[in-house]
Every structure is written in structure tokens, then in C-alpha cells.
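Friendly challenge for the regulars: who can give me the C-alpha cells for this chain first? No prize, just bragging rights.
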Amino acid sequence: MIFRLLLVIFTIILTGGDALAQQTEKLDNGLTLIYKQIPNVKVVSVQTWIKTGSVNETERESGISHFLEHMVFKGTEQYKPGDIDTVVESNGGVLNAATSKDYTFYYVTSPSHKVEVAFNTISEMVFNAQFIPNEIEKEKPVVVQEIKRKYDRPTSEMWEEFSAIMFQGTPYAREVIGTEEHVNSFTREMLVDYYNRYYHPENMTLVVVGDIEYDIVKKLAKKYFNQKRDVKAGEIYNTSGRLELKENIEKIITKDLAQEYGVISYTADGLLDSEVYSLEVLGEILSGGEFSVLNMHMRYDKQLVNSVSGGYYGVRKRGTFVFTYNAQPGKSD
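First reply, four minutes later:
Bragging rights claimed.
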């Protein structure tokens, strides 16, 4: 997500806002292609966004979207484990991926004249991953360690409680990364089944932004991404509705810390609602920068907090407006 934000800012600066115009079309297999040219930058970002994340998992599959994201780098029909990173980086590119509650995405940013490497490697990951059994077992302790590391953060339990309350009654309440027990239970059959259900062309959007002609993009998209998968696409979680609270809920977590941390949240609609834009503007007014309303009032004038922020946080079908702070002991009230 950080990369996407930086990319959008980058394109606006370079083109004075015109970069937001784009071309969109469907390939024969149902995959959506989105293209925008930014001339004279000499680089291209190729991204594949897949409409699946932890929200589509069953209880037993909790964490499988994230684990699968790791595994598609660990061997495909064309590449041995570790080869994709080597190929991309040796051609001057960078690559990464991320998993959220609603989506998974992969990107390669490369010099324009090496862009075919990006199309080739990403298409291999999203269409031709092999899920080699010994690589699966080697990756499990890596992800388990990632799960354990989150508890190094003093606010990890606070955010777990926050998700459990604000997204209660939906799969959004579960952690994207899953649990150690779930990760260790994943089998190759489970991974292949999930991959076939959700890494489906109809669930994919290929985004290409940068210094490249559309004719080249279309040719490469058809060459590498117009593949078909002879399996039934999985259903996308689609239950909507703002959380209705009949009374305020307060949770206090006691830990031996030098500061107090807090989160105050109000219910809001999901990301697809038009109200989101006004909430984003409100968040910027309240806490966008050193001289924002919250900073001036609570940090400088009243000296109540060490830091404070407020803004919209949402997923596809549910949202919240959240205030967070940290303060010296005794200041929370």
C-alpha cells in the first residue's frame, strides 16, 4: 500500500494531475487491464491486484492468503525457488507483494526497456506457481516467526481487540497473517485449492503505469496474462452493512509500558461508499501535518499527548473513523 501511495503521488507531481486519466479494457479471459502512460521517466511499474485476502478464507484457512503470497515466489513452471528475485534484480528491477483483508497484490518496477521481465515473472507467479512440498515446509517457520514478531509492538493486542470489535460478525475480524497453529496445518492440497479458486483471471486486475506505449503493453498482456484456468472461480465475500452499536464499548489492556496508547473509533461505511472521500479530507484536516487541528490543540496547547492522529480506515464492506494517540501515564482520561 505504501508503494501504491508513493506511485500515485509521483505521477501527480510529474504530470500535474493528468496521470489520473487511464485506459481500461478486458482481456479475452476476463482479466482487467488498466494502463496509464507517464512519458520520460524511463521506468514502468507492472502490478497485479487479486480480489482475495483473508476475508475469503474459511476458519481452517485463516492466514492462507498471506502464506500463499510467500509461496508463489518459491518456484513456478519456469523459475526455480529464488530465481525470480535474481532475474528481476539483475535486470535493474525491484519487486514485492502484500496481502490485506480484501486483496493481494504483486508488483515489479523496472527500467522501461526491461519491462517484459516484469510481465513474465508476475504472470508466472499468479498463474504457474508449483507449491513444492519441501519449500512449503521451509516457509512455515518463516511465517510463524513473522507472526511472533508482531507481539514486539506494544500496541499489537490493542489492534487485535479493535479489529475483533469493529469487524465483529464478519471474517474481517480475523488477523490477515493467521495463527501459528493454522500456518503449520497448511498442506499443498489446501494451497493449490485456494490458488485455483481465487487466482482466477476474473479476479485479477493488471495495472501498468510508466514510460511505455499502449501497443507494447497490450501485446505483452496478451502474451503473458491471457491465460485461462479451467476451474470454477471462488466466491468473493460480499456481505455489507455498517456495524450498529447500541452502546459504547470500552476495553482496557494493562501492560508494563512507559506510555499509554489509545484508539477511539466510530463506525463508518466501507471503502466503496462515496462518503469515504469526505472522511479522507476530514482526516487530513484533523491530523495532516505538524500544524493540524489535533496536533495544535492536544499536543502543543494542552500538552496531553506525545502524538495523535485521526483518519478513516476501511475495508471493502465496512469502515471506521479512528483516533489514535500515545501519552504519558495518567493522561488518557
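Confidence is low (pLDDT under 50) at residues 1-17. The longest strand covers residues 318-327. Your move, everyone else.
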